[in-house]
Amino acid sequence: MLSPQFLLTALVVVLAPGTGVIYTVALGLGQGRRAALWAALGCTFGILPALLAAALGLAALLHSSALLFNLVKYAGVAYLLWLAWQSLKSGGALQVRASDSVESGPHIALRGVLINTLNPKLSIFFLALLPPFLSGNPATATAEIALLGGVFMALTFVVFALYGAFAAAARRLILGSRRTMAWLNRSFAGVFTLLAGRLALDRA
Q1: The domain containing residue 187 runs over which residues?
Q2: 110 lies in a domain?
Q3: What is the CB neighbour count within 10 angstroms for residue 50?
């Protein structure tokens, strides 16, 4: 159940930079703190499908079905490549730019939801992470998974929001340099492309 060991494990997992962190930081640098908070919220809710899949046993089906796994995986790869393009495209959604214009929050959050929903490894991760911390009582298993998953989501939002806040604070320091903004945009595009490549090489 909920224990210091679970909290430490979950915190280490959440702190590790991944697609969601990169997305949130990109929004913080590109559009400020409000956009970063929406990104963090979207990435947090994007965990919910994987958590439900793990609770219902669907993650095991995803893991055993190569076709289903690859369908989700390559949809995720295509989406990450699209995000890379949005970092480079003039006026793209993830481009760091001097403009103060901010996208609508729901649009930012929706992209965050899709980032985690289209990652088939996330449901398999929950299938591996949660069981060691369950009591072993089948009657309470669903409630325990809901509790642990809820805590994991809360940690995700707090940590991602902090990442985004730091990025937003750094935004003012980089807006005066076109070279720095161009370098950051190319860097984000490169990172999203690398993450897409890593996901493409993953196997069920």
Answers
A1: 17-89+102-201
A2: yes
A3: 24
